[in-house]
Design goal:
Largest sheet: 7 strands, antiparallel
CATH topology of the largest domain: Glutamine Phosphoribosylpyrophosphate, subunit 1, domain 1
Strand order of the largest sheet: 3-2-4-1-10-9-11
Number of strands: 23
CATH architecture of the largest domain: 4-Layer Sandwich
Number of helices: 17
Oligomer: single chain
Structural class: alpha+beta
Radius of gyration: 23 Å
CATH superfamily of the largest domain: Aminohydrolase, N-terminal nucleophile (Ntn) domain
Strand content: 15-25%
């Protein structure tokens, strides 16, 4: 995951084939949309580039000129997918885009979004960030009624539900469809003349509304607004549907209200540090996590070093609070690329060594505190500890700016099974021994909640607490739909 060499220094491109691909939480896609921009596809390209850290398996853009929706998509990074010819063929004033990391469905071109379909009411494009927990059940029911699926993505379920709805208008069809799904979704949809952005009632995944001149913009993160010269207007609220057309912006709240359960891992790891997510600065939150970690797990040491790049801001906070000097004891290579060379077994841990280089002058004879955001399976952390010792560190104390990860995610984050998670199988002493560290300290759940400040209680912490807001279910949700004729205007 995170193979974006242009990502800020605090956000790591960690999913490289030379490392254990299951030893990181994998982000869950990014979405972007713009309406009222003559060069909508070009601006969407830039927005997707800013969101590249959220998915690297594929990218796509759908654009409308008011009559026809045209689509270009492919596997790979945004810059690899879109050259001059691809963008030149996307003419129009409105567009939506998507960067993909597959959390549901195989990694193949047919699953790269946006999806564009033609149904009774015309063309429709959709891009989805999240995961529907009842997608399997809904798919079985739709197939039993004659639906034919062209992908293995849960997103396609939404399109079939819209097409099958007997409601009159597009907006009513969409509400009807979303009343039947459960789980996490931040969606952007586009027909010939309307852009719609909507979040699930729990607000698991982020989505913001912004402006760029006269154009309206929606994005998974505010960092995309910064790149395109836009301004952040506000967060799109949980359960809110924002409808943008030539008449302006309207909002609806058609879904039953739920307690907000925003993914806390957006602040711990997923989001770029220069973003504002869920109304909070990601950078400032990570600094505070590092400070709290230093208070909970102090240690006598000579240097605080981050695991680059995701541990950088937490390490700065730890160093600031502890008074231990901050040092760059590990450097990340931006030029690893893909390789199919298979070195002999004598080159131990070659994957980590290609990616991370120890700075021996910082490590030699030193007691070091190593700060990272999480431990998933522990295989990469174990290799890092061993590399630090081989480079001369006399003590290695691992500090994690999150509680132990004990549960899998059902809401759009690709995680190993619970049985594969190191903290599910071992207590902290067992983890210390497995990693070969002198000590291991996790941030407590209470401290994490302290960092949440006034928003405490409104975050999903299920991967730590095992308290899931929405369980995967085989039960069909209520299909009762509140009907309405026209959306209410709202600023």
């Amino acid at each position: 995951m995170h193979r974006d060499d242009h990502a800020p220094d605090d956000h790591a491109p960690d999913d490289h084939p030379l490392q254990d691909p299951l030893d990181r939480f994998h982000d869950e896609c990014g979405v972007f949309g713009i309406f009222g921009e003559p060069e909508a596809a070009n601006v969407t390209y830039l927005g997707l580039h800013a969101l590249q850290h959220r998915g690297q398996e594929g990218a796509g853009i759908a654009c409308t000129d008011g009559e026809t929706i045209r689509l270009s998509r492919g596997r790979g990074l945004v810059g690899e997918v879109f050259g001059g010819p691809q963008i030149a063929g996307l003419q129009g004033h409105a567009a939506i885009g998507h960067v993909r990391y597959s959390t549901f469905g195989e990694d193949s071109l047919r699953n790269v979004q946006p999806f564009v379909v033609r149904y009774q009411a015309g063309q429709l494009a959709v891009a989805h960030n999240g995961n529907l927990t009842n997608a399997g059940l809904l798919r079985e029911e739709l197939e039993a009624r004659g639906s034919i699926f062209g992908t293995s993505s849960d997103t396609e379920v939404i399109l079939h539900l819209v097409a099958a709805s007997r409601q009159g208008t597009f907006i009513n069809r969409l509400v009807d469809a979303l009343m039947q799904v459960e789980g996490a979704y931040s969606l952007v949809l586009l027909n010939q003349d309307t852009l719609v952005a909507v979040r699930d009632p729990h607000g698991f995944r982020p989505l913001v509304l912004g402006r760029r001149g006269d154009a309206w913009v929606v994005s998974s993160e505010s960092c995309a607004l910064d790149l395109i010269g836009g301004t952040l207007v506000r967060e799109i609220e949980p359960g809110e549907m924002v409808i943008i057309d030539r008449d302006g912006v309207q909002t609806l709240r058609p879904f039953p209200r739920r307690v907000r359960k925003a993914c806390v891992f957006e602040h711990i790891y997923f989001a770029r540090p220069d973003s504002t997510v869920f109304g909070r600065s990601v950078y400032e939150t990570r600094l505070e996590l590092g400070r709290l970690l230093a208070r909970e797990h102090p240690v006598v040491a000579d240097a605080v070093i981050p695991v680059p790049d995701s541990g950088v801001t937490g390490a700065l906070g730890y160093a600031e609070e502890s008074g231990i000097p901050y040092q760059r004891g590990l450097l990340r290579s931006h030029y690893v690329g893909r390789t199919f060379i298979e070195p002999s077994q004598q080159i131990r841990d070659f994957g980590v060594k290609l990616k991370l280089a120890p700075v021996r002058s910082v490590l030699q004879g030193k007691r070091v505190v190593v700060v990272d955001d999480s431990i998933v399976r522990g295989t990469t952390s174990r290799k890092i500890v061993r590399m630090l010792r081989e480079s001369g560190a006399t003590e290695v104390h691992l500090r994690i700016t999150a509680p132990p990860t004990r549960g899998s995610c059902f809401y759009g984050v690709d995680t190993p099974t619970r049985e594969e998670l190191l903290a599910h199988r071992l207590d902290t002493d067992g983890i210390r021994d497995y990693l070969g560290a002198d000590s291991v300290g996790y941030l407590s759940l209470d401290a994490l909640r302290q960092a949440e400040g006034p928003d405490r209680g409104t975050f999903c912490e299920a991967c730590f607490s095992l308290e899931y807001p929405v369980e995967p279910t085989r039960e069909r949700p209520s299909s009762q739909v509140p009907l309405f004729s026209e959306p209410d205007p709202s600023s």
